[in-house]
From TrEMBL:
GO terms for cellular component: AP-3 adaptor complex; clathrin complex; clathrin-coated vesicle; cytosol; early endosome membrane; Golgi apparatus; late endosome membrane; lysosomal HOPS complex. InterPro entries: Beta-prop_Vps41, Clathrin_H-chain/VPS_repeat, TPR-like_helical_dom_sf, Vps41, Vps41/Vps8, WD40/YVTN_repeat-like_dom_sf, WD40_repeat_dom_sf, Znf_RING. Gene3D superfamilies: Tetratricopeptide repeat domain (1.25.40.10), YVTN repeat-like/Quinoprotein amine dehydrogenase (2.130.10.10). Its main location: cytoplasm. It is a peripheral membrane protein. This is Vacuolar protein sorting-associated protein 41 homolog. Belongs to the VPS41 family. It comes from Otolemur garnettii (Small-eared galago). One of its GO terms (biological process) is endosome to lysosome transport. One of its GO terms (molecular function) is microtubule binding. CHCR repeats lie at residues 557-701. Residues 1-20 are annotated as: Disordered. It comes from the Eukaryota. It is found in: Cytoplasm, Cytosol; Early endosome membrane; Endosome membrane; Late endosome membrane.
Length: 843
């Protein structure tokens, strides 16, 4: 029916059409088979079609005939309807004019002596005050009904040829004659403008003027190839004089490529029906081409073409410019292209049409997005259908991964569709492509679907198979079926680590932890410890401790020690009896955690440390309180472990032998001195001096270090005359410096002591000078009766000690002859000091 016309040769046909087209059929088809359309008028509710045989048909919007009027035996020139759609005006080529109500009978009927080309009824003809219409032949007549229901006519214009076109909007009437376009204000009875015709060379009867009102004050004029947009404006009061109250301003004017047959507004754009003539390349003769319907954007002096469609109307080859008309319905943006043999309806494309075009261009992604955005407005499309078509398109194109990925969004939770698509992927051998995107929770597909994909991977991709087993929950498929399939493959490749690991995972899902553990240990897999902990498999590893230790001794020992309640220390030690190096690792960590837990094995550990870990033997001997010293000494002496032997000898009380070993075996004077300092035994110092007296290096070491423990004079007196001692002067200077430092320290300490003693003495004196409160609540510490008598008039005598104990004087024992001082009996008995008396109260 139509074909989009590109703006240029380079432009591709990827631009979406703005309008869609369909023929008005049903009754219209029947009419035009016997007759030809001459004019048509559009109302929001119905259509009125006039024919060359003088018939007027009322049609519904689908083209069905609802009413028929035999107006004249000749061509109907124009039909006019008021806004209500209740009154219609008709004029014909034989001069007949009828204005009548569709539901109220005839209003006006007259035959003129010349053809009447145009008629327009008042837009509000239904009102009694607006019973007006105009007709045009050689002159423009205004008919008005008077108060006596009689019609009177008045000439609005004549003398410039036939009236060819008229449009009435509100209070304004626009018409065209041979000279141009006039606008008449029906209210003021004034003609307010004259827009002259540009191309006077064109015959006005062959290339008639097209008029349409965009709104109440904007008139669009199309004539020949020229378009003018005129705006009716109010004249300022100061400019009135004898001029009309309104004037017209041309706001836009431009030329088109072809002859204009009709105009209609579309928002701020224009719809233009053009009559096209082209020259044949073969005969070089001019011929009538298909008419074009263009959407253009008016600019002040030019226009921009938005879209252009060539329409294949019936009989376009014989039509002239005057044979085409463009009518429109303002409420629904419907455009009717009327030709003698055809009526085509153009309408704005809706979202369904937009999706149709996207699907036609295979722009499925955009179609899905458009459908999702306008889900409530689309009527002919479903998002799911578009999505399925998209998936099919991708599969046909070979984009299997993209198609599989789109399944997630498009198929959603529809398990039946999922299964259907999976089988489609199977048919083309692309099950691997869809496997990452299969639903795993909501919904869950039949186990057979998952098993089918697992078998596909098992046949060709062990790594992919292992990945799916790790990622898919074990309840998606029949575990025993897959286990058997893996076993069958292991018969061909028994050492395949990937298959073994996957089989272990399958055993784990099946809670067959024993078999899984054996495989993990065989593979030395890092997850073996996690498996043991997670599923509490300690009873299964009691005979596999050596394997675990061989795999990762650190993790194995930590696990065994953390779970002593499940695998006892005794059991572990027994299992490791044939592997003493592993036994040592276990017992060493046990000792580090708790020095007492493995005390029964401390004797064994001496040999283990000596054999496998000597650096930790001495720390063990120092920290252990349970190892037998004699056994340890025997082992250390056998292996000639000097440091350990020295420590054991000193710990057993044989310090002199230990010192001798240091001097004779290690020849380390610093260590010997350090040892002597630790023991703090004068005899050891004497032995050290005697051993060192003939060894100058040792003497130097002693002179540098014994100054704070032994009087250096003892050593200096024993040095033989003439013996050369390295760094003797420096050593003597150091001795003197150390001595001076000791003297200074002593003097400093003495000064501090004297100052502290004086301060404390003053504090004690101040304290003892303070009074002590004695009242009726205090008691005698001897007789336990109140210290003060109840009768204050009686004489009394009370002794109060600095310790705050109080006595009646008569309750205290009489001082002995040897010491006249009196002391608190309580504090003296408890060795708290004498607590001498500080106060004696008498009355």
């Amino acid at each position: 029916l139509y074909e989009s016309v590109p703006n240029s040769k380079e432009e591709e046909s990827e631009e979406e059409p703005k309008l869609k087209y369909e023929r008005l059929s049903n009754g219209v088809t029947e009419i035009l088979q016997k007759d030809a359309a001459s004019c048509m008028t559009v109302h929001d509710k119905f259509l009125a079609l006039g024919t060359h045989y003088g018939k007027v048909y009322l049609l519904d919007v689908q083209g069905n005939i609802t009413q028929k009027f035999d107006v004249s035996p000749v061509k109907i020139n124009q039909i006019s309807l008021d806004e209500s759609g209740e009154h219609m005006g008709v004029c014909s080529e034989d001069g007949k004019v009828q204005v009548f109500g569709l539901y109220s009978g005839e209003e006006f009927h007259e035959t003129f002596d010349c053809p009447i080309k145009i008629i327009a009824v008042h837009p509000h003809f239904v009102r009694s005050s607006c019973k007006q219409f105009v007709t045009g032949g050689k002159k423009l007549l205004l008919f008005e009904r008077s108060w006596m229901n009689r019609w009177k006519s008045s000439v609005l214009h004549e003398g410039e040829g036939n009236i060819r076109s008229v449009k009435w909007r509100g209070h304004l009437i626009a018409w065209a004659n041979n000279m141009g376009v006039k606008i008449f204000d029906i209210t003021s009875k004034q003609r307010i403008t004259n827009v002259p015709r540009d191309d006077i060379s064109l015959r006005p009867d062959m290339y008639p003027c097209s008029l349409c009102w965009k709104d109440a004050v904007t008139l669009i004029i199309g004539w020949g190839t020229s378009v003018k947009i005129c705006s009716v404006k109010e004249r300022h009061a100061s400019e009135m004089r004898d001029l009309p109250s309104r004037y017209v301003e041309i706001v836009s004017q431009f030329e088109t490529e072809f002859y204009i047959s009709g105009l209609a507004p579309l928002c701020d754009q224009l719809v233009v029906l053009s009559y096209v003539k082209e020259i044949s390349e073969k005969t070089e003769q001019e011929y009538c081409a298909r008419p074009r319907l263009d959407i253009i954007q008016p600019l002040p002096e030019t226009c921009e073409e938005i879209s252009s469609d060539a329409l294949t109307v019936r009989g376009f080859q014989e039509n002239e410019c005057r044979d085409y008309r463009l009518e429109y319905s303002e409420g629904e943006s419907l455009f009717y292209i009327v030709s003698p043999r055809d009526v085509v309806v153009a309408k704005e494309r809706d979202q369904d049409d937009h999706i149709d075009w996207l699907l036609e261009k295979k722009k499925y992604e955009e179609a899905l997005m458009a459908a999702a955005i306008s889900q409530r407005n689309i009527k002919r499309h479903k998002i799911l259908d578009i999505g399925l078509a998209y998936i099919n398109h991708l599969m046909e194109r070979g984009d299997y991964d993209i198609a599989a990925r789109k399944c997630q969004k498009i198929l959603g939770k529809n398990s039946a569709l999922w299964e259907y698509e999976v089988y489609k992927f199977k048919e083309i051998g692309q099950l691997k492509a869809i496997s990452p995107y299969l639903p795993r929770g909501d919904p869950v597909l039949k186990p057979l679907i998952y098993e089918m994909i697992l078998h596909e991977f098992l046949e060709s991709d062990y790594e992919g198979f292992a990945t799916l087993i790790r990622e898919w929950p074990g309840d998606l498929y029949n575990n025993s079926v897959i286990v058997q399939a893996v076993r069958d493959h292991l018969k061909k490749d028994s050492q395949n680590k990937t298959l073994l690991k996957t089989l272990a995972d399958l055993y784990t899902y099946d809670k067959n932890y024993g078999n899984a553990l054996e495989i993990y240990l065989t593979l030395r897999h890092k997850d073996v410890f996690q498996l043991i902990h997670k599923h509490n498999l300690f009873s299964s590893i009691k005979d596999k401790i050596v394997l675990l230790m061989d795999f990762d001794s650190e993790k194995a020992v930590d696990m065994l020690l953390d779970n002593e309640d499940k695998i006892s220390i005794k059991k572990v030690v027994e299992e490791l009896e044939d592997r003493p190096e592993l036994q040592h690792v276990y017992l060493h960590k046990l000792f580090k955690r708790d020095h007492h837990k493995g005390q029964r094995y401390h004797e064994k550990q001496i040999s283990l440390y000596a054999e496998y870990d000597r650096p930790n033997l001495l720390p063990f001997l120092r920290d252990s309180t349970h190892c037998p010293l004699e056994k340890a000494l025997e082992i250390c002496q056998q292996r000639n472990f000097v440091e350990e032997t020295v420590y054991l000898l000193s710990r057993m009380g044989n310090s002199r032998s230990a010192l001798k070993m240091i001097m004779e075996e290690l020849h380390d004077v610093d260590k010997a001195i350090e040892f002597a300092k630790e023991q703090d035994d004068g005899e050891l110092w004497e032995d050290l001096i005697l051993y060192s007296i003939d060894k100058p290096p040792f003497i130097t070491g002693l002179l540098n270090n014994i100054g704070t423990h032994v009087d250096p004079i003892l050593l200096i007196h024993r040095i033989k005359e003439g013996m050369e001692i390295p760094n003797l002067r420096d050593s003597l200077v150091k001795i003197l410096q150390d001595y001076n430092l000791q003297i200074l320290l002593r003097e400093g300490c003495k000064k501090i002591l004297v100052a502290d003693s004086l301060s404390l003495l003053k504090k004690m004196h101040r304290t003892q000078m303070k009074g002590v409160l004695v009242d009726e609540e205090n008691i005698c510490e001897s007789c336990l009766s109140p210290v003060l008598p109840s009768d204050a008039a009686k004489p009394f005598s009370v002794v109060v000690f600095h310790c705050r104990h109080m006595f009646h004087k008569e309750c205290l024992p009489v001082p002995s002859m040897n010491s006249a001082a009196q002391f608190c009996n309580i504090c003296s008995a408890k060795n708290r000091g004498p607590g001498s008396a500080i106060l004696e109260m008498k009355k």
